[in-house]
Design a protein that fits this description.
The complex is a heterodimer. Chain A is an alpha+beta fold. Chain A is built from 17 helices and 20 strands. Chain A is elongated, with a radius of gyration of 29 Å. The longest helix of chain B is centred in the middle third of the chain and has 25 residues. The chains are: A alpha+beta, B alpha+beta. Chains A and B meet through strand 1, strand 9, helix 7, helix 8 and helix 10 of A and helix 3, helix 5, strand 11, helix 8 and helix 10 of B.
């Protein structure tokens, strides 16, 4: 289910863990460390932000009875850490590598991962459509860096989700245009593209200069000189043979009309992110002067078009030769809807990116958690001291993921969980990939039904959740600066600063652990 | 708000200022959202269809709007509730994408939620309902593809387009003149349409209005109407076969952009400056004259001296024309926009068949009508109406009709209106539902029921007995498997929408279904609402 959170900045509807945690504005220091965990997960892998919080909460819940009985937190922490190491080791063994698959097959597998992520989101109805889109977009990127910035996401209100489309190149909204713009040609086949970072406007060349004239006859010559400067620039642009001129700075009305007369398309004040993607896609190089325009600095693409998308007009550069970039144009009924779709796709993109880098997957739908839980429970019997108890508790806590999955889908959790335990306990290991089947309310082999998650997400989630739980367990005293409890603290920042200062024990460590986690 | 207490009973403060926030959780939250959405939908219900009623909306500063256009009503209503706002955006995005059917989509979404509520009472999980709706939506849109018909049209044969536009207009204030208005809209769209790329740039159709006169006086100007007059009252009021020069520089001595200062220290220099300035004026006018221009349209102003000179040289001129108009004028007349006088040459001039200054009634308002342009790439619809409210409503109605025509240019498939398509989809969904086991079965049935809310509202608004009319049509559709039967809103005696010529575009209908389903899912998925209490 989603949460609707209404704050001073507006309304957000989301079920993305990190987004919700960020908006909740949590002030309790211990609770805050959970927020940090979720945000760290978001930054590190981009998905699984909800599970990490649930896991941490469950670890603590399991720990509580022991603490109440007087167990020293340190021994709990030690066992939990040990359990986490074991779990991660086991998880790595269980992971299935996709490295050796052919590219086409790999893409198909990546799509499955993306679909699993999208399952829980608002756009789940079209998950196949979007998963394909995400995989196509990510596979366009430079495999060496997989820079996220090179995937542009544009949101256009209106239309159905299905009207979203992927441009294998760049798309951006029509920029502000001057009179004469409509007389320019609006579509080209394999155009030459010139990208500039200068103003093409009639303007004062020097800001603080002043010209003194003593002969009125010379007046005209100054006017002419200014015009000549701009005309000279424009002529050079035209002479370069470009069909499309883009600039990060303004292209004035004079230039617009000049280009219109010469069948050249231009757009000024293009956002720098868009412009950067244009250069990557088309191979054009940004010029800061129009002198010595070498044909080599011009970019090209298969086709350019200005097209109506919803109520906006968009400039589309398609079929780029060295396309290391892609643009997703999202459509949807309302602003909140598109925003949520954007967040969902972001998660999916991160997952695909991660999976491309570390091509190892595990079965989703709670299957891997059940398997780890079983493994740890068995393993704990090797200890004859307190650790046995604690590791068992840890194992039990892991079951929270399938349980919550059932609850949220409206099924009887106890029933499903018992079925799962039975499957996983089978001696021949044939049941190890069984997870919750959210469609029918039973259990199924989630690996076979392609509910996959990248192993990295799970590893990170388990490690982060354990760290967070241990961190909170290790605190035995909270000292709070009274200032932070004044309801109308002068500003949020001040209150926060005060808290880090005084209750610093908890938070300071939290930050440190957070960094350690990202190894 | 969730509260925790330590062993001494002191509360933990978890969220900042949590006592000042309100929170609704679980099924309560879903129900509260549905309630809000329903009440918005109910407002619009009576505005649906050809006999739909108008709303009068008064804005905080006293402006009155009378309309039955869904998107406009919701925008003016200034809805506060967040879920209500979602409905407003729903109708707005239908407006952006399709331009028509903005009322229908809200009514449909309202009905879907209403039925979802009763399913919730049965204890169904909201997500399962949403999933069932999505399945049903797929079935319904597939059904639309099965029952659609294609309309062939060309620039010469515009009849099919006109008829579809007439359906849109029949529910509007211009219903009386729908034929005339529909023709105007279709001609306008076809004039600017790029039939090969199936693209229509609506920026090129300008809708201009003037209070006064009759609706019948509304007409399509195959050219431009500019809300300006000639710069000098003695200039001729009508020009024929004119060459037009379009300038974006003022009629005054050019100024360098760089800071400058002219030092005048002798009388001679002063005189020289004066002469230079004067010669600038004569020179400018002379250049216009030399180029062969018979009309000068200028983006900037010019002072009386220039005006006098132009008058003297018998060169009519218009000043202070806005950038958009300049652009349209350039497109229409085929002129190039000239940034300075030195560049004015014969080949940069445009051509217009006639330029007329038209006055209205007894008022002093005047407008310039530029017609007979060689390149019909920009047109203007000139609207007349009794008062400002009617005028605005006509403009909105025409906008809807233009959008419909544009959609047909993009995709020429249509379905039949009057609720016929909805009933047919409802039947298809019902049939499909019988093949589904599980909770989704109920959700799909609910979807089918909700679809029937549209014809129901149509019948109700037309003063027909809603349930009788709906069931009669439904029965006939089922028996004859004829998807063209709809509600006979105009009381013409036949239920066959083909005979009544009531059409709607397929993309418009599909869009309605998609959007309404999406919004429903979004609303159903929310189980937790946290907001500052002062918003209650």
């Amino acid at each position: 289910m989603d949460k609707l959170i209404h704050d001073t900045k507006g309304v957000t509807i989301s079920n993305d863990g990190a987004t919700i945690m960020k908006l909740l504005d949590i002030v309790h220091p211990a609770a805050k460390s959970l927020v940090d965990v979720s945000l760290a997960q978001d930054a590190e892998v981009g998905d699984g932000t909800t599970s990490v919080v649930i896991l941490a909460g469950e670890f603590l819940k399991e720990a509580k009875p022991f603490i109440e009985e007087g167990v020293h937190p340190r021994s709990l922490i030690k066992s939990f850490r040990q359990a986490a190491v074991l779990a991660v080791q086991r998880l790595k063994d269980q992971a299935i590598s996709l490295e050796d698959k052919a590219l086409e097959e790999k893409k198909d597998l990546l799509k499955k991962c993306a679909m699993t992520t999208l399952n829980s989101k608002l756009v789940s109805g079209e998950k196949e459509f979007f998963a394909q889109m995400v995989v196509d977009a990510v596979s366009k990127l430079d495999p060496a860096t997989l820079d996220l910035k090179m995937i542009g996401i544009k949101k256009v209100q209106g239309g159905g989700l299905r009207d979203s489309f992927l441009v294998d190149g760049v798309a951006f909204k029509k920029t502000f245009s001057y009179a004469g713009f409509e007389q320019q040609p609006k579509s080209f086949v394999s155009p030459k593209i010139l990208v500039l970072n200068i103003e093409l406007e009639l303007k004062a060349e020097k800001e603080n200069a002043e010209i003194r004239l003593d002969d009125p006859a010379k007046y005209q010559s100054i006017v002419d000189a200014e015009w000549n400067i701009i005309y000279d620039k424009l002529a050079k642009c035209v002479a370069s043979g470009a069909n499309i001129v883009l600039s990060r700075l303004a292209i004035g009305d004079l230039a617009t009309q000049y280009f219109a007369d010469r069948n050249i398309f231009c757009a000024g004040r293009v956002e720098s992110g868009d412009l950067e993607r244009v250069t990557k896609a088309t191979g054009a190089k940004v010029q800061t002067t129009v002198n010595n325009l070498d044909p080599a600095v011009l970019g090209t693409c298969a086709s350019f078009e200005e097209r109506q998308v919803g109520a906006e007009r968009y400039n589309l550069f398609m079929g780029c030769p060295q396309a290391r970039t892609a643009t997703l144009v999202l459509r949807g009924g309302s602003e909140q809807f598109i925003d949520e779709a954007d967040r969902s796709l972001h998660d999916a993109i991160m997952i695909v990116r991660r999976a491309l880098k570390h091509a190892q997957v595990v079965a989703g739908g709670g299957a891997i958690e059940m398997e780890l839980s079983k493994y740890l429970a068995e393993y704990s019997l090797q200890f004859s001291n307190k650790s046995q108890l604690f590791i068992k508790a840890y194992a039990k806590a892991l079951e929270v993921i399938p349980r919550q999955l059932c609850n949220n889908a409206g099924f009887d959790a106890t029933d499903v969980l018992n079925q799962l335990r039975q499957k996983h306990a089978l001696a021949d290991g044939s049941g190890k990939n069984f997870g919750v089947d959210v469609n029918t309310g039973g259990v199924c082999d989630t690996y076979k039904s392609f509910v996959w998650e990248p192993a990295l997400v799970k590893i990170n989630a388990i490690q982060a959740a354990t760290e967070a739980a241990c961190l909170i367990l290790s605190v035995d005293e909270t000292v709070r600066n009274p200032k932070s409890e004044v309801p109308d603290a002068a500003s949020g920042a001040a209150a926060q600063a005060a808290m880090t200062g005084a209750g610093g024990r908890g938070r300071g460590r939290g930050a440190m652990r957070g960094r350690g986690m990202r190894r | 708000m969730s509260l925790a207490f330590d062993e001494y009973g002191r509360p933990f403060i978890i969220l900042r200022e949590q006592e000042r926030k309100s929170r609704v959780k679980g099924i309560e939250a879903v129900k509260a959202s549905i309630m809000a959405a329903k009440s918005v939908a109910r407002t619009l219900r009576s505005s649906l269809g050809p006999k739909g009623m108008d709303k009068m909306l008064q804005s905080p500063d006293g402006d009155v709007t009378i309309t039955n256009d869904g998107a406009t009503i919701l925008e003016m209503m200034d809805v506060e509730n967040q879920i209500g706002k979602l409905m407003v955006e729903l109708s707005k995005s239908q407006d952006h994408e399709i331009g028509d059917g903005t009322t229908g989509v809200v009514v449909l979404a309202g009905a879907l939620l209403e039925h979802a509520e009763s399913l919730l009472d049965m204890g169904m999980h909201p997500l399962r309902i949403a999933e069932g709706y999505e399945m049903a939506c797929k079935v319904a849109t597939e059904n639309l593809d099965n029952i659609k018909t294609r309309f062939e049209f060309s620039k010469e044969d515009i009849e099919p387009l006109v008829k579809t536009c007439m359906t849109t207009l029949s529910s509007k204030v211009v219903g009386r003149l729908k034929r005339q208005m529909a023709e105007i809209c279709v001609k306008a769209v076809l004039a600017v349409a790029d039939l090969e790329r199936r693209d229509v740039n609506l920026d090129l159709i300008k809708v201009e209005g003037k209070v006064g006169g009759k609706m019948e006086d509304t007409r399509l100007v195959e050219g431009i109407v500019i809300d300006k007059e000639f710069s000098h009252p003695q200039m001729p009021k009508e020009l024929r076969d004119v060459k037009v020069a379009i300038l974006t520089c003022p009629f005054e001595p050019p100024k360098p952009k760089t800071k400058h200062k002219v030092d005048i220290d002798t009388v001679e220099k002063f005189e020289a400056l004066r002469d230079a300035e004067r010669s600038y004026f004569t020179d400018m006018v002379q250049r216009c004259k030399d180029s062969g221009a018979q009309l000068v349209v200028c983006q900037w102003g010019f002072d009386d001296e220039a005006n006098h000179l132009l008058m003297h040289e018998n060169l009519p001129a218009v000043r202070w024309v806005g950038g958009v108009e300049i652009e349209l004028l350039a497109m229409a007349t085929g002129a190039r926009i000239v940034p300075r006088f030195q560049e004015l040459t014969v080949d940069k001039l445009g051509h217009a068949g006639s330029v007329k200054e038209v006055g209205f009634g007894t008022t002093k308002d005047k407008m310039l009508v530029v017609e007979g342009c060689p390149n019909l790439k920009a047109v203007t619809i000139f609207v007349r109406g009794g008062n400002r409210m009617v005028l605005d409503e006509i403009k909105r109605s025409l906008h809807d009709a233009i959008c419909v025509a544009r959609n047909l240019v993009r995709d020429n498939a249509i379905v039949y209106g009057g609720g016929a398509a909805e009933i047919s989809c409802a039947l298809a969904v019902e049939e499909a539902a019988d093949k589904v086991t599980g909770v989704e079965h109920y959700a799909m049935r609910a979807f089918s029921d909700a679809l029937q809310a549209v014809p129901l509202a149509l019948a109700e608004n037309s003063g027909l007995p809603p349930i009788e009319s709906l069931t009669a049509v439904k029965k006939r559709q089922l028996e004859e498997s004829n998807p063209y039967l709809g509600i006979d809103c105009n009381d013409t005696g036949t239920n066959d929408m083909r005979e009544q010529n009531v059409f709607e575009t397929v993309i418009g209908k599909k869009q309605q279904l998609f959007l309404a389903t999406q919004v429903c899912k979004m609303i159903l998925k929310i189980d937790d609402v946290i907001k500052p209490s002062e918003f209650d």
